[in-house]
Amino acid sequence: MNNSSNHDERIAKMTFASVYPHYLTKVEKKGRTKEELQSVIEWLTSFDEKKLQELIEEKVTFEKFFEYATLNPNASLISGIICGYRVEAIENTLTQKVRYLDKLVDELAKGRKMEKILRVS
Q1: Distance CA 105, CA 70 (A)
Q2: How far is CA 68 from the centre of its chain?
Q3: 41, 36, 40: which is closest to 51 by C-alpha?
Q4: What's the mean pLDDT in 75-81?
Q5: What structural domains and CATH numbers belong to the chain?
Q6: φ, ψ of residue 4 in degrees (nearest 5)
Q7: Which residues, in sequence order, are CB contacts of 113 under 8 Å at separation 6+?
Q8: Over the stretch 85-112, which tens digit does the pLDDT of each residue have?
Q9: Would you say which domain of life the source belongs to (predicted)?
C-alpha cells in the first residue's frame, strides 16, 4: 500500500469517540443492532461494553485504543478492500488495525452473517 505517513498520523490521532457514532448509524441504517456492533468490536479488540464506553468517554485516540486492545488472533483472516485499500496489504500496523475494524463494520452493514464476520469455522 502506498500510504503517506500523514495519512497514518491522522488516523492515529483520530478519536474512537468521533468515529463510533458513524459506525452505529451505518449499521442501524441497514437494520443491524448496537449489540451486533458491540459483538464485532469485542471480537476484534476484547473490549466489553463497559470498557468500550470508558474509552469513548475518555476520547482515546485510535493509537491508544489499539494499544489497550488485545487483538483477536484471527484478525489476520480479515481481508478485502476497504476505503480503496486491500487491508491485508496495509503496511502501517495501526492503520491496518483501524481498517480491520472498518471492514468488520462494513461487513455487518452489508448484512453478512455474524459467523462469517467473526471468522467462525
Answers
A1: 18
A2: 14
A3: 41
A4: 95
A5: 5-111 (1.10.8.290)
A6: -80, 155
A7: none
A8: 899 999 999 999 999 999 999 999 999 9
A9: Bacteria
Q: What pTM, to 2 d.p., does this model score?
A: 0.93
- Burial (Cβ within 10 Å: 0-12, 13-18, ≥19) of residue 78: buried
Q: Is the pLDDT of residue 121 over 70?
A: no
Q: Is the pLDDT of residue 33 over 70?
A: yes
Count how many residues are written for the chain.
121
Q: Where are the alpha helices (H) located in the chain, listed in sequence order?
A: 5-13, 16-29, 34-45, 49-58, 62-68, 93-109, 114-117
| Residues 56, 20: Cα–Cα separation, whole Å | 8
In terms of DSSP H, where are the helices of 59-92? 62-68
